[in-house]
Amino acid sequence: MKSPALLLLLAFGAVAVAHAATPDYAVLQRYPLGGSGGWDYLTIDPASHHLLIARQDRVMAVDTQSGKLVGEIPGMRHIHGIALVQKLRRGYVSDGAADSVHVIDLDTLKTLRDIPVDGRNPDGIVFDPASGHVLTMNGHSGNASVIDTASDKVVASIALPGKPEFAVSDGRGHVFVNIEDKGELARIDTKTNKVDATWNLAPCKSPSGLAIDTRSRRLFSVCDNKLMAVTDADSGRQVATVAIGDGPDAARFDPATRLVYSSNHDGTLTIVHEDDANHFRVVANVPTQVGARTMALDPATHRIWLVAAAPGPRHAAVKDFTALVAGPR
User: Fold this and answer.
1) Helix (H) or strand (E) holding 189
2) Model confidence pTM above 0.85
């Protein structure tokens, strides 16, 4: 969980970013946000144009067109991530302190029900469209809880080889999850609800954020030792490593621009271009703000949203909350 937030938005033109040899990025606009408490993962709901922020004891909804706070969903304890099930217009929010998942209505911004999970500290959370299940990655018990979205009940528990972090689905029956304490990547078969492969990510250390290119079958793990590890999703072969900023916590891939993003605690956003399935190059390290480690990609606008805190003493009152829009000058 991060510190109270300053919200940043970075906007990138699809064509300009993909083809510019030396792109020049800058912060373009600022929005006030406000509010107290830490945060974790960010999620874009493209249907409502909402940025959903896991904000410690509540979900904050920010209008991605105006940058204004439009609502909050309270009554939570220590939330981490939000998985969207668009067909049902529901969100599933992992609550690490309550060992549960809160089901929210994405249109009314209300809590519908709570689902206790069979693990401790549910953190990363992902929807797998192939099975219709939501999976929570339980950081303190080393397992994944499987929730059937038709019944909103836990239907299986999957033993994992270590402490799970972020997870992604390929939409074809597999979920991939970084194993932070082992420097590994695990593959879950969502038909059998079992891990069917585990791959070593060395020289990557402490992988956190994870993204996927479902077309080229490439996985992007961002690591604490300033590396992005690129892995073949079918064979587990390491395709490449790419230098990124320090202290990453999230990764995103934009299929329209072929860009991979790493948001880093050192106040940079590393942008990597996928030239082809086996070749990758850094095109920019965009200054953001120290602490801006988590992000969301808006696929409609190709904008990147991040959050960070205004500098201040530990436990000091929150102030100077601002949304920043950045892109090519």
Assistant:
1) strand 184-189
2) yes
